[in-house]
Amino acid sequence: MSADSKFGDYGGQYVPEALMPAIEELTDAYERYVLDNEDGFMDEFRDRLRDFGGRPLPLQRADQLSARYDREVYLKREDLLHGGAHKLNNALGQVLLAKYMGKERIIAETGAGQHGTATAMAAAHLDMPCEIYMGKTDIARQRPNVFRMRTNGAEVTPVTAGRGTLKEAISETMRDWATTVEDTHYVIGSVVGPAPFPAMVRDFQAVISEEAREQIQEKAGRLPDAVLACAGGGSNTMGTFAHFVDDEDVGLYAVEAGGSSLSVDEESGVAPNSASLSTGDEGVLHGARTKILQDADGQIMESHSISAGLDYAGVGPELAHLVDTGRVEAVNVDDDAALEAFHRLSQDEGVIPALETAHAFGYLEKNYSELGDVVVVNVSGRGDKDLETVIEETMERDLSIAPDMSVFREVGGGAL
Amino acid sequence: MSLADAFADGPAFVPYLAAGDPDYESSIEYVEALARGGADVIELGLPFSEPIAEGPTIQEAVVRSLEGGMTPSRFFEFVEELDVDVPLVCMTYYNLIYQYGDEEGPRPFVEKSAEVGIEGFVVPDLPAEESGPLREACDEFGLDLVFIVAPTTKGERLERMREQVSGYVYVQARLGTTGARDDVSDQTDESLARLTDWDVPKAVGFGIKTGEHAERIVSAGADGIIVGSALVDIVAAGHENDEPTGAVADRLEAKARELKQGALRGAGEEARVE
Hints:
The complex is a heterodimer. Helix content of chain A is 42%, strand content 18%. Chain A is an alpha/beta fold. Chain A starts with 5 loop residues before the first strand and ends in a 5-residue tail after the last helix. A 9-stranded parallel beta sheet of chain B has the order 5-4-3-2-1-9-8-7-6.
């Protein structure tokens, strides 16, 4: 792991001047505490991941899926991390780092609510005041997570600009940070943003692949042929890939949200997908040069996914670089395939995945024959938070695999 | 006239408006009204969809302008159509500069800017560390690159900016985003004190709203004042109340005059003290 601010042409620090000293201070703290384990920071981080987070997490053989696809399929169970998603690895790392840096307040933004929830939990655990910015659209579709944040004592501030999703929430959090930068740490929720965030978040999430690499060798006696992870901003993707990047025989697949279509409506400025690795162009957004969904003029497009957690117009710069250099394959599946995969994993394995995660299983369903004999899929989070969306979206479709929805139709409601 | 020349005859008044707010035609009149009211340099915003350095006032102006169809190409037409006799600075975010034209990088945008008569740039999300390619293109076409010095900018970073800045330096009066305030920050004096030996004019912005603010800032040693949100507020109110463009333009001109007069008073006080 290194503290490079650039990954090929990607990365960098494109932020308002007022934030640059904070970025420098953070870079210094990252190098000292995370990379050099000064004051035993990483030891404390790992202790807390174990005792508070519940690590290590299992790598489970998926028996039904293995039989269905006639190959060994393993699930890395990040859904079993405290809070129900991989997000806690990063949130705990950053809140602890903020504490080591002497900061007094935590702010964060959230899309699906998982990062906000994880940050609120970490802040409560480490006794730090915490404010979470969340788009109004996302608040409406992720109510249980909003309530969890509030329960953990965090302020949740709705963002009404634009379409009210993650993109707007990030801009708003940056504005707060520009005002309060001297005593506040901004816990960015993915491998995005100005350096050192992409490298630092990757390092906190790399525990996923560190464990998975060791576990698969114990269980399968070899490295996998393929590793799959869903990709929005890319934090679980980079965490799942990090320790496999040097294993060149291991295929790495970043599964993006193809939404309802990969085509783009330039006129209305809307991309009906969130597939910035597959369809985006190089540009500068939220502090980094990376692949983004933008129109010909460089205005950022509204993205779309059935999964709020993938609904973002950008992606981590390191992931963009790994795709450009051919080390990672960027693939995507649409909303329908993700929803089907949600039901399949729930029925076949008894694991209710987040809609983000379901994209990775949607890709597995369609392309398993090309993935080799041993496949690891990261279950990035559990699906409880998505149940309202799943009910609504399932009722709108005729899915052979879905459970009988008539009970909901009879009572005439979609809300849990 | 170059940017530095605009500061040569006493304190400069540097207003900002988002080009195309709330619509193309009205916006032309508004910018021209600022020139009549005494603007020495005009900062014209080319709206970007994610204006992370802006507060709510300018953020909403950006939305109005984008919804009205403003694009980089329209922006250049806008500049060509303006009938003003003061230097113009383009204030925008780096992605728009980077994406313009067929060639990758900032050069085509700078070339086109020079062609339509823009004198320089302010790019809030481009710190000195990332500004090399834009600085190079500006040098090639003889344009200035203005940097924003924040209250938090110190030490080596300050030196790096000093080496790269040209035209004038934009002194951010307080932490946070843009927006009109009811008082003047004490941070302004400290920020100006750090820049006394810089050989570019020092223009202070962020939060200036009244003639008194302008007077106070100039008497503290600023070579100019930058005012955005207080002017955008007038445009927004005119738009919301469906007022005739001429009436809004008159109010902008009067506000410009108030701010310019305040700046002049500030310089007069400074002269008496000396």
